[in-house]
Write a structure and sequence with these properties.
Helix content: 40-55%
Largest sheet: 8 strands, mixed
Strand content: 15-25%
Strand order of the largest sheet: 7-6-8-9-10-13-14-15
Shape: rod-shaped
Radius of gyration: 46 Å
Number of strands: 18
Structural class: alpha/beta
Length: 744
């Protein structure tokens, strides 16, 4: 490419010659500030300035436009530096002739001249600035732009989110003014659309922590706003943290900011610890939004050209300026915006001339202090609408370009167009070309399915079967006791107490069935009733079974502690019954008050999320376990456990004290003592263990059931097996008469 300085000198000469040639027409002068030289910032003037000159030629060749006048552009280079841009503006304004409007490019320069231009009543039209801050009508009351604001992407992002029913998103931004303003606008739009922003992460240079925080917050749909070099660092962290694939969707900025292969280039220069293959994998299926800067339709525009015609003319102009064929200098994508900016100026001036002519005034009366004509220029620019080479040109109330946006998706290393969005009509044109892993649209959050942990059916049936057998055995023992109630062996063992024990055992074994009833068998409404039945059945069963044995051992201890034991003393059965009755009354009072004041209710214990096995769905399981609890559960359990624990300890003491004593009046006292040992030991083991394993439904149910079954079976065996053996060995034994076995 030839030295661009000589090229621009040539343009200056051509512009001057054109001005002399047009001397017969009066001139309407505008000022232009183009960022061409320099090494930092945006040097888009290299393509935008030739594009603007093409527009000047086309405008001035139209006899129906600006009749009697020619448009003249005086311009200079700002190097995309705010200070130099301000100096260029002052030079243009303080040197004749008077400028009717200003053209500007580069956001930092436009911020300076746009804020100052109101002091000269000048309208500023930018062809190359995207900063959302420039939409502030308080700071920039006369600013317009054909370059879409960076916020133009946000309505498209919202539309896509609504299309896929994404209502939970996250934002990752670089800490730059342009992105901060864009995010603020996006947050407002998300709030209006009822879309939750789960987290907003920002970074200055290193995105490592910010990307990790996204993963901690379970972000799935993520909008990324950053310059291209930061985008590569972000993409590398995305790969390292596995924030890509079937569960994630990333929104990046489109081609206007990044080149097509941005994710594979400059990796070594920027010292990124990711390979091209890794970067390509992380970039797969991400979405981009970009404002359309070239008319997508092959139709004639206001200049009589199609976008293709303009491209050919621009390419030739760049070749004439020394650019090699097919080369694209900085600003080539924005060149149509500069072309349409000149047309916007011409149309606004033409409209103003017509308005002023209606009141016998002329646009030549404009001065930097003439607010009336300046207001007419503002109104005309604000109402300007036409079809240009960059598409439909129109301005919002904030002076922003109302433009279509294009949506693309990265598929196998290449961008594919998915559709267009027209913010004016809220119309999304969609081609249905998107691709997702497994042909399933990613969800905006982890789909959590609640799963109730229930006792396994096999375990429940097994324990219920065993407890059923035990209950039948207890029933048979009741029948056995009734049939042989006249035998002295049975009479001296206090059959009524034995029967009470058997009834208690049957209740305890029945409670196993209730303990296994959970959400797989009963509903939420019936569960509190099951909770109450569990408490009553198990508590009363324990009291009857253990209470009867305790009353026996108590009477044995009372008889053995008298100074003289009379072998003919009869043990009154009613005393034993009264003791058991008192225990039952205590149970009924405590349980009744508990049930009436603070009844047991169904509560759920929630466990950490689990990844389900053998499924391709993007879901997690939230395990839940049902418990029976009341508001003051600890107090009520403390009352029951307290007094029953005292009975257990006291019963253990009595059994130990009477371990070697035999009485005729209670002939099975030693066997009852052994049963008490069994009950006490199992209760002392079961109670604390069940508290520890209460979160494991199968283990807890199995342990408690086994303890109840073992305790009941062993107690029945100890108390009744010797009696059965005795009856079988002596079927015609004594039946309550002297001389029979049992009188010895």
């Amino acid at each position: 490419m030839k030295t661009w300085t000589w090229a621009w000198t040539w343009v200056w000469v051509v512009a001057g010659v054109a001005g002399v040639a047009a001397a017969k027409d009066r001139l309407l002068n505008i000022g232009g500030i183009f960022p061409i030289g320099g090494s930092d910032g945006w040097q888009g003037g290299r393509a935008c300035q030739p594009s603007a000159m093409l527009a000047m030629e086309d405008v001035n060749s139209r006899p129906d436009l600006l009749p009697g006048y020619k448009l003249n552009l005086a311009w200079n280079d700002s190097l995309c530096e705010p200070g130099l841009g301000a100096a260029v503006m002052y030079d243009l304004l303080y040197n004749q002739p008077t400028k009717l409007m200003l053209l500007g490019g580069c956001s930092t320069v436009c911020t300076t001249i746009g804020e100052a231009a109101k002091m000269w009543n000048l309208v500023v039209l930018s062809y190359g600035s995207s900063s959302p801050a420039l939409s502030d009508r308080q700071r920039f009351p006369t600013f317009f732009r054909t370059h879409p604001s960076a916020t133009v992407h946000n309505p498209t992002r919202i539309k896509i989110m609504q299309k896929y029913n994404w209502s939970r998103v996250a934002i990752l931004q670089q800490a730059e003014e342009v992105f901060i303003s864009t995010v603020e606008d996006l947050e407002l739009r998300c709030k209006e659309a009822n879309i939750e922003i789960v987290t907003r992460q920002s970074f200055l240079t290193d995105p490592t922590d910010a990307v990790r925080n996204l993963k901690r917050q379970d972000a799935r749909i993520i909008v990324g706003l950053f310059y291209v070099n930061a985008a590569r660092r972000v993409l590398c962290e995305i790969f390292k943290n596995k924030l890509f694939g079937k569960s994630y969707v990333w929104f990046f900025i489109g081609e206007g900011w990044y080149e097509d292969n941005w994710f594979e280039s400059h990796l070594q220069e920027e010292n990124l610890n990711c390979t091209k293959e890794e970067m390509r994998a992380a970039a797969q299926y991400h979405l981009t939004t970009e404002a359309l800067m070239w008319n997508k339709d092959n139709e004639k525009t206001i200049s009589g050209m199609t976008a293709g015609d303009f491209r050919r003319r621009l390419n030739q102009a760049l070749i004439d300026l020394g650019y090699e064929n097919q080369s694209t200098p900085v600003g080539y994508q924005e060149a149509p915006l500069a072309y349409d900016a000149v047309w916007s100026v011409a149309l606004a001036l033409n409209k103003t001339m017509e308005t002023l002519a209606a009141v016998n005034r002329s646009i030549e009366e404009f001065t930097y202090t003439n607010k009336e004509i300046a207001d007419e220029l503002y109104k005309a620019m604000n109402a300007t609408q036409f079809l240009g080479v960059s598409g439909r040109v129109a301005f919002s109330n904030d002076g922003d370009r109302i433009a279509w946006t294009q949506v693309e998706q990265m598929i196998e290393g290449r961008y594919h167009k998915l559709g267009y969005f027209d913010v004016q009509t809220d119309n999304l044109t969609w081609f249905n070309r998107e691709k997702w892993i497994g042909d399933k649209v990613p969800q905006d959050r982890t789909i959590v399915r609640r799963q109730l942990r229930t006792v396994s059916l096999g375990l429940f049936i097994s324990m219920c079967t065993i407890s059923g057998v035990g209950a039948m055995w207890a029933l048979l023992l009741l029948i056995f006791t009734f049939i042989h109630r006249h035998r002295r062996l049975i009479q001296l063992s206090h059959p009524a107490c034995n029967n009470i024990t058997l009834v208690g055992i049957m209740l305890c074994l029945g409670s196993i069935f209730l303990l296994g009833l959970d959400g797989q068998f009963v509903g939420k409404q019936q569960f509190p009733m099951v909770c109450g039945l569990r408490a009553w059945c198990l508590s009363l069963g324990f009291t009857l079974a253990y209470g009867a044995m305790f009353s026996k051992i108590w009477r044995v201890h009372r008889l053995t502690t008298k100074t003289k034991i009379d072998s003919k003393v009869r043990v009154e059965p009613w005393k034993l019954y009264v003791m058991v009755g008192v225990m039952v009354v205590v149970d009924v009072v405590v349980l009744g008050v508990w049930q009436g004041v603070d009844p047991l209710q169904r509560t759920l214990e929630v466990f950490p999320l689990e990844v389900p096995k053998n499924t391709k769905e993007d879901i997690k399981i939230m395990p839940e376990l049902e418990h029976c609890e009341s508001r003051h559960n600890t107090i009520w359990l403390g009352l029951l456990y307290g007094y029953k624990g005292l009975l257990l300890i006291f019963g253990l003491f009595l059994a130990y004290e009477t371990r070697s004593i035999k009485l005729k009046q209670i002939n099975d006292s030693r066997l009852v003592g052994m049963s008490i040992y069994n009950v006490v030991v199992l209760c002392l083991i079961t109670a604390p263990v069940t508290l520890v394993i209460s979160a494991q439904q199968d283990a807890s149910f199995a342990f408690v059931s086994f303890a109840i079954i073992f305790c009941c079976f062993l107690s029945m065996a100890l108390v009744f097996i010797p009696k059965i053996i005795e009856v079988l060995q002596h079927p015609r034994g004594a039946c309550g008469v002297p001389g029979g076995r049992g009188t010895k």
